[in-house]
Amino acid sequence: MKSFTVHRGRVAPLDRVNVDTDQIIPKQFLKRIERTGFGQFVFYDWRFSGDGKRNPDFVLHEPRYEGASVLVAGRNFGCGSSREHAVWALADFGFRAVISSSFGDIFANNSAKNGFLAVRLSEDEVAALMQQAEEIDGYQVTIDLEKCEVRDEQGFRATFPMDEFVRHCLLNGLDDIGLTLQHEAEIEAYEARHPAPAALRAP
């Protein structure tokens, strides 16, 4: 898993509340067996009309937000179903983090396990970031996980809460497999002391 320490990037404001995972990545695109390739379908029903034509009014189609890597959204972002594909789609599109005042619990957990940062700030702080992104072309923020801080060059600075274990995993790029492999020597020693029965051994 890619570690997250400090990231500076352009901000895209998504001024909508209760953005559920079916809007982040609609169900018809869940047939892929890889974790990649979902970015082209992120927010598909908002980015495109029913006949597949591009919606020029959607925020991510505005030229000034092209290449944005930080999404700022309304409260309860990532609610709804538990699909991990929502995080894969956002990351594949190019986002490294999303900032909101609250998240769906499963979405936040999936984010942490995929090296994607879900930053929780107050509603007033989120509103301030949205306003800056709407008013300043090329507006950027720095997200510092080592300090648990979001800041910009205009004077905004805010700290965010983060579970210490989750923070440790993100800083060190450790998903569940990575955590397990930290104990590889102990696992191998255990297996050496407890060989599998003959019936279970590979031919």
Describe the fold and architecture.
This protein is of the alpha/beta class and 203 residues long. The chain has helices spanning 21-24, 44-47, 85-93, 105-112, 123-135, 164-172, 176-181, 184-193, and strands spanning 6-14, 70-73, 97-100, 117-120, 140-144, 149-151, 157-159. A seven-stranded mixed beta sheet has the order 4-3-2-1-5-6-7. The longest helix is centred in the middle third of the chain and has 13 residues, at 123-135.
SSE layout and pairing:
Blueprint: E1 6-14, H1 21-24, H2 44-47, E2 70-73, H3 85-93, E3 97-100, H4 105-112, E4 117-120, H5 123-135, E5 140-144, E6 149-151, E7 157-159, H6 164-172, H7 176-181, H8 184-193
Parallel strand pairs: 1-2, 2-3, 3-4
Antiparallel strand pairs: 1-5, 5-6, 6-7
What is the arithmetic mean of pLDDT? 92
Secondary-structure element series: EHHEHEHEHEEEHHH
Number of helices: 8
* Uncertain stretches: none
| Name of the CATH architecture | Alpha-Beta Barrel
| CATH fold naming | Aconitase, domain 4
CA-to-CA gap between the ends?
A: 33 Å
In spatial order, strands of the major sheet run 4-3-2-1-5-6-7
Main β-sheet description: 7 strands, mixed
Proportion of beta-strand residues: 15-25%
Task: Give the number of DSSP strands.
Answer: 7
Number of domains: 1
* CATH class identity: Alpha Beta
| CATH homolog superfamily | Aconitase, domain 4
Structural class: alpha/beta
Tell me the helix content. 25-40%
> Could you tell me the radius of gyration in angstroms?
20 Å
What sort of overall outline do the alpha carbons produce when their principal axes are compared? globular
